[in-house]
Structures are given as C-alpha cells and as structure tokens.
Amino acid sequence: xxxxxxxxxxxxxxxxxxxxxxxxxxxxxxxxxxxxxxxxxxxxxxxxxxxxxxxxxxxxxxxxxxxxxxxxxxxxxxxxxxxxxxxxxxxxxxxxxxxxxxxxxxxxxxxxxxxxxxxxxxxxxxxxxxxxxxxxxxxxxxxxxxxxxxxxxxxxxxxxxxxxxxxxxxxxxxxxxxxxxxxxxxxxxxxxxxxxxxxxxxxxxxxxxxxxxxxxxxxxxxxxxxxxxxxxxxxxxxxxxxxxxxxxxxxxxxxxxxxxxxxxxxxxxxxxxxxxxxxxxxxxxxxxxxxxxxxxxxxxxxxxxxxxxxxxxxxxxxxxxxxxxxxxxxxxxxxxxxxxxxxxxxxxxxxxxxxxxxxxxxxxxxxxxxxxxxxxxxxxxx
Length: 382
Fold this sequence. Notes:
The protein has 15 helices and 15 strands. The chain has 382 residues and is an alpha/beta fold.
C-alpha cells in the first residue's frame, strides 16, 4: 500500500522528523512493500529522510470567479470553507495515488481552530481515501464543538498518551480510537562522537525553547539561575541541545544566550543546529540526566533510558509522564514557573531516584516499542 503523510511542517522541527522516521519504521515492519509520500510545508528540510518521496504541501491561488464566490460565501455564510476547498485541491490531487492518508502533526488539534486542516481532512475523505489522525494529543481546553465534530471524519484516531485517549473515548469522538505510544519512540539513534569532556557520567542535557519563553517570559532568567545552581552545587557539565530550528522558533538561537553567558566556565557546550533527529537522539542518549521543553527531545531521552524532567506546557507532556510513571511525575508546568526552585527540586528528585527511574525506563521501553509497532498492524486492518 501507499501512505500519504500530511500535516508535516518540515524537518527543521526535529520532533516532526522523528514522528515521520518512526512512522516509516512502524508501517514498514507491518507492510514490507509499503511506499511513502511525505507532503511537507518545507520539503527542502526533509532531505535527511531517505526512502520516502517528498511533495510540497502548497495551496493554489483562487481564480477570479472563485474569489467572487468565496467573497459571497464569507459575507453571507460567514464561512471560508469554499475558499479552503479550492486552495487545498492540489494537496488532495497529490494524494490520489495513495491508499491511506495519515495526519502526522500529532498536536495540531492543540493549537488554534485548525479550520484549514479540518477542511482538508474532509476533502481527502470525500476523495475516497482512508484518513487517520496519527499520534494525537488533545487537551479538553482545546476541544471545541467544531473540533469534536471534525474528529468523527477520521477512519481512526491513534492517541499517544492516556489523557487524550480517555478524553476522546468519554466524548465518543470516533468509533476507532486507539492508545499507542508516540511513533517517535521507534526512531533509531545514531552513534555520535562524544564531545571531549562531556561524558555520560558527567553531563546534564538541557533543552529550553523560545516557545516556552513565549508562554512565560521569566523562563530565561529562571534557566540562568538553574544553570548557576548546577555549576555551584554539582560537578556536572551542561550540554545545550536544540531540537527545533525553524525561523522565529529556533532553540539554537535562543539557547546561545545561555552558552555565551556561561562559556567561560568551561562546563557548557551547545550542539550545532545542522544535525538531524537521529544524531540529536544520539547525543541525548549520552547524557546522565536530561531536562527538556520540546516533547520529542524528552521522548528521545525516555527511549534512551535517561532520567528526564519535562518543562511541559500541554497535555502531551503530562500524559507521557503519567503513562511512564503511573502519575504525572518529573513534569513541570512551565507556564506557571516564577523562579528556578521547582526545576531544582525536580533535578534533585532525578538524582535521588536515578536508579529507580532507569530501571522503570528499562522495563517500559521494550513494551512501548512493541505497542508502538502494533500501530502498523492496526492500520493495515483499516
């Protein structure tokens, strides 16, 4: 079968890259003859992913007559649906030689009204395709009546954590709702050359994002205070690990502020922005502890057995922690932080429970990988 992966922003977001890589591994395991088409907003960033055809996710310009009809529709019906249908028609055409369409933007429904994606999903379904929401997270605060109705359109919904699964089941959002780990758990990691002086025994991996800073402007100073605490109270070194390098949402540019301020300590380094998701995972696996804001950076740490604390901001981080530890442990609401003490407390909890956490992850990961791989079999049954 041929699989159309859409709603992918591009691989400068290495979380999205990890989802695509994990998805290909999962489906190929169940369907060895599978072919893949990746519809990408930024296909030039996806050259790092082999054995997959890339197509540009592009809207088309409306004709003069279509603009007239669209204007009437907006004025009289207060609806952009006609315009969106016409704009997305080329994407629907792109998918015509495929059998199953996977919406791989797992947290799309956490942000905004998503009206465009809802229209595209309906149009793909009308064209005769099976359409699946893949690796989803949705918070109750994000679930408007319109979104809830749009979820009925999917042939299946695969949720990646139990908070979303329970919510959608309770809302009867769809007849086929499954709970499986995030596909990114199934992405391999590359073996990387260790940075001199930054060994697994003495390295704390740290990821902080401008997205979190946007929610909480105090996070920059809070992070600086936390780094000072590490340098004053431990012998650990800090490896700054970017995971998204999109324009206007660039971890590397943001974390360079921390590197420049503390570089004279000789105990801090920052990874370059030109690595791929497998390489970043390789470096994350070589840390003793990890503290991260980007969900898929923390998934890379969890799946590598690294004790991890999360600077969360949505249901996905809470749900992932709950499923791993049976409660929402080692996860902080980054929006509510006013000083560094909660991060310091979580870090000290990682030290205190280091062996227990590693044992939990060592036991959970084989089960997680097996359950994630089962997504391919469930998909084929569609």
